[in-house]
Amino acid sequence: MIKFENITKIYELRSGQNPVVALQDVSFEVKEKEFVSIVGKSGVGKTTLFKLLLVQERPTQGKIFFMNQDVHQIRAKDLFNLRRRIGVVFQNYELFNKKTSYENIAYPMETIGANKDQIKRDVNEILQLVGLTDRAFNFPEELSEGEKQRVAIARALIHRPDVIVADEPTGNLDPANTYGIIKLLYKINEFGTTVILSTHDKGVVNNLEKRVITFEDGKIIRDEERGKFIL
Amino acid sequence: MEIFNSISKIIFQGYMGFRRQGSFNIASIFILSLVIFLFTFLFVFYGMAQSLSLNLQERIDISVYFDSDSSEKQVLEAKSELSKFAEVKSVEYVSAEEALNKFTEKYQNNSIIMSSLEEIGGNPLLASLNIQAFEAGQYASISNFLISGSFEDIIYKINYSEKKPVIERFFSLISGVNKAGIIFGIVLILVAISIAFNQIRLAIRNSRKEIKIMRLVGATNFMIRGPFFVQGVLIGIFAVLLTLLIFVPVSYFLSPRLEMALSGFEIFGHFADNFFFIFSSQIAIGVGISTFSSLIAVHKYLKI
Predict the structure, then answer these.
(1) Domain tally for chain B?
(2) High-pLDDT (> 70) share of chain B, %
(3) Which domain holds residue B78?
């Protein structure tokens, strides 16, 4: 489904400092319906990996394939098609501050021209799934951190993407909310959506008993089917 | 059907965005109102300068007095020649008799002047032509034509030299007003550009995060630009309405009070007579700057 092929990403610094190697010859594949955790300390290149997949940045070397298509060959104006198939969840939620939970979740559906009834039905369904029916008309500033992340997950899920990419989704959450979010991602995966989770939280990964890819200094040092977070 | 669905969603999102971005929109509306107000003021100022210039021009003329032995036929011939002159707006013939009648009418209550006139006996006044040019700068060439032409022998006097200082002062006043208008216009354009630039910077800062999220959740460029465009249009329209809300009552209130000082120029009347032009220009400026700055800001972040 997703294939990273010899990916290297080097950031050239303007101030004459040495370039930063974020990823070095990284190759791995994610199959459909898989739950993959990408682990490693902060700054090992986990976020860079996602940015490259979403074509927010270009690799210095290598190729990334999504459904056999080289994502960096897609023209800028057609990228929305790729992004509609990948649901993204961020550590800092990235919600529209001026939209309610309902509107935040409905937005991806509006972009694909769904009608009002369809949007209402699907958003209410997903609000139920993430347990936020009673927070539908609250703005992000009126929600707790855990609720914000649930809205972000709901928004990532609403247009039924093939894959959910979650970049440190529990980074700002307390243990109770962390557990809730991971349980939710687990449930989503059980429904058949591929999940790629990046985290530096040992507890989260060790309880999942799913595939774990461990990064260190921009390289993969371990890739295990039922892995643990060992560093 | 899908396109109408998308357009209606864009309009709705634009409207909601406008409603919810309170302080930013209020600041934008005030800034744009200032530009529109300056434009409106410049337009009225230009109208006022034109009116004053015309008014003063109406009052300026030169008179050519003919020798007492010149015949009416000769004077009328001179009038006909002058009428052919492109610079001449009007020529009025005043016979010696008419001049005397006007004079006596004017001074009938002044016994000294009237008795002096009786003492002189007959008609001491001369036939004349009162000439009006289109522009103040044209009187010199009209005067030169008369002096150097075939009528030189029958001309007693041209009062151009007496009126020359007044005409020149007027001419310099008009050119001064024009120069001031140009400088004011340039300053206004600079102010408008810097305000628009500032607006662009604000719009960029304000929409950076939002555009990034829109892109990442799969919105097309059309879906991203649309709401910002609608917001820009709404900001422009509200800025025009705010300007009108201030300008209309202020000009209505000041108009009668300044009418005397402005030689009969009515600010409010001028504004009302040109309302369609002013309103369309205000909309073009307000909506133009606002949507342009929003779209520039969006464009920058569409590359994310």
Answers:
(1) 2
(2) 95
(3) 60-170
